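for the writeup, i need someone to sanity check this before i put it in the appendix. the sequnce is what the collaborator sent (i think, or maybe the updated version? ugh). structure was predicted straight from it, no edits. if anything looks off just tell me and ill rerun, i have time this weekend
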Amino acid sequence: MSDNWDFYFCHVDDHPASIFVDIGIGDAPPRDEYPLRQHLRLRLRAPRDDGLSSEDEFETLATIEDRLNEACARHDLLYVGRCTSDGRRDFIFYARSGHESTDWLAETMAAEPGYGYETDVEADPGWGAYFEFLYPDEEGFNFISNRQVLDALTRNGDALAQPRQIDHWAYFPQPEQRAGFIERMTALGFQVRELLEPDADRSDYGVKLWREDIPGHDRIEAITLPLLRAARECGGGYDGWECGVVSSGRPR
């Protein structure tokens, strides 16, 4: 287990989902040593209307997760993440060959008899449950990056309530792809601040766009996802955004 964990929101089977995952372990996953996937599905007692966990259960769920982490250390398993969706919380673990028993999960859950749960074990030598279910895709990483930038703005005194110019970057293998992207984005109100030509540091064709927006937590996905998806559809990639800090109504 690494110390690089993060969370993001997405949809699973058309239901809102919150995923908390060990991103760092994906850099060098010990597939050969831990080829068995173990799974605990917990049925929430007081989910929100959208199926995610509520504040009413926060402390209890945190305690359960702590106990699972402690049990993993005792039984030599790897906890790699969890998904909360549709009134359930799914915990994913990887075990060594021969460790098919889930008795350790039953022992851990015995401390919380009010929760219904299910367990299963399956060979997963490619770590499909981790890479195909928990690990963030491009849009998941975009959510994480957005939150990190917003958190940095907040730490610098920004209330995230005022409109300001927000710069965005995207890069493409060919100039024609960049031109197609620019055409699509200008139709959405973005303007070109700078064209970025290949140089000694980068061999692709970039563009720096801007538009006036409010970078709030409830707004930023609607701002960045059209850019990300259009860049991908045009054969390139969206490379993030930045803006000035606005405190007391004044940018700096």
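Residues 138-251 form a domain with the Alpha-Beta Plaits fold (CATH 3.30.70.970). The radius of gyration is 22 Å.
thx in advance!!
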